[in-house]
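Entry 12.
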Amino acid sequence: MNFFNYQRRKSSEVQIGGTPLGADNPIRVQSMTTTATTDTEGSVAQARRIIEAGGEYVRLTTQGVREAENLREINIGLRSQGINTPLVADVHFNARVADVAALYAEKVRINPGNYVDTARTFKQLTYTDEEYAAEIAKIRARLVPFLSICKENHTAIRIGVNHGSLSDRIMSRYGDTPEGMVESCMEFLRICVDENFFNVVISIKASNTVIMVRTVRLLVKTMEQEGMNFPLHLGVTEAGEGEDGRIKSAVGIGALLYDGLGDTIRVSLSEAPEAEIPVAKALVQYVTAHAMHPHIEGVEAESFNYVAPMRRTTHAVANIGGDQVPVVIGSYFDEARTFDVNLRPDYLYCGSTLPTERLDIPLIVDAPAWTGEENTYPVFMGFGEKNYLPLLAACSAPIKFLFVTYSQCSEEVLACLKTHPEVVVIHQTNHPHRVGEHRALAHLLMHEGITNPIIYFQHYAEENLSELQLRAAADSGLLCIDGLIDGLYLHNIGNSIAPQAVDTTAFNILQAARVRTSKTEYISCPGCGRTLYALEDTIARIKAATAHLKGLKIAIMGCIVNGPGEMADADYGYVGAARGKVSLYRKKECIEKNIPEEQAVDKLLQLIETCENERLTCND
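Predicted 3D structure (tokens):
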């Protein structure tokens, strides 16, 4: 893999109805209905909305044989209207349902975590090697007849592993790890290969973007070692809704797309399914536009572990670098600004003119204008200024910022950084493939043993905040997940987007990449035909009541498929248990079962208040 130049991974081609996937085909976008699959008219209407928005596959949940059989009617309903978009059946817990769905859908998704293994209970089990092999034999005995049905009906399959629904068997041997997720997938893939069945797509997802990216990287490496090149479906599960869902999806999916991975994507939002499609299309178009960019010469640092990257070793310069969370720099535009208490930039760049009002945020000022004012620090520009390095060396400031491009990192600049540990690099690039040059700069410093912190300057000229959020998250998420970032400076040219919204976007990107927490995090599913309560209204109520609880993770899950599993990473969980019934969790522990929906939000809030008060009392 070339870390600095965009090149799409070569995968095999999978035939899914009349819309093939992988190989040289475009990256496909898709969504999933939220209607009951027994509701033919409603499902057809919603599928049409997804397709009219640009969806190239439509997935429907098939809880039982009745839902699987009704795919035939939904298929007929769409085909009678001249719509030939492939349908995908989503199967959990019942392998017999997959057999039926393969007769009527162009693709069937099965989940290795519950296809043969029982539902996850979080029990620690012990297997001898012989007992473990016997469990694999059970999978083979059940999977092979299904593959035969798929061969006969020209049906593709998706092996879809979710972090939230790994089996107790996998968990007991591998733990809650990327290695366990990959092995869960490979057990099924090896059987497919043995049976000469190659019409297979793979997905391996998590709500945690770091786990999701690392696991897909490990999966690709493992497949390559075993001579496989199956196409990939990408997605961040339970990404949420609104700007948080879009940013989180762009961080995880974008990081993989930039490395050329991914043949189809779904942006899972807790919104109407057709709302997912424009986001997915915009993300794919933005990243793939970098193809054929000017070549970037870069050197991979030997210390970099692509599959499991650690944070780049840096020394601390005040509150920047070392073991500290990445900082956020904002722009000061000589105007009155308000700041959220949890989303205040750590520094403000104010150019050559200090603001007239007194601010309690440290200021960065152009070096020629810096005269040593308290709480201000100079920035030296590397653009067109021949003698900036001698000026930097002569400056007495305890923190100095150096704006530099990758092409300017000459031997003289590298020597200067080695000599001046008080310098923080602010890296700017005008290269069409900005992520490649940002990455190349970090690898160069690692290769040279230079530990000065790096802040990435990401500049845009967007008129629309959603576009800025999506692009900035894709451009910065990879740098966060690779462990290369000590700070982020987002700047948007023009007055169409408020500076505070730009700064908030930076904080949200860092939180989505799990490198800095600034507010409550919500892990909410997108909903489907399995959803057991009014999802969007419930999310809004819970958010309104808990948004002040900085640092908490709250999971809001429509059903049990991924619910308890994804909540292993959450502090509290709200999970659909039956129609109109909800169960509440603290971590992995179910605290109360089958609460009437109309009481459940209030009871969740009572649970959070009680537990958090207890925690604060214990800390005191």
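Annotation: The CA atoms of residues 125 and 399 lie 54 Å apart. The mean pLDDT is 90.
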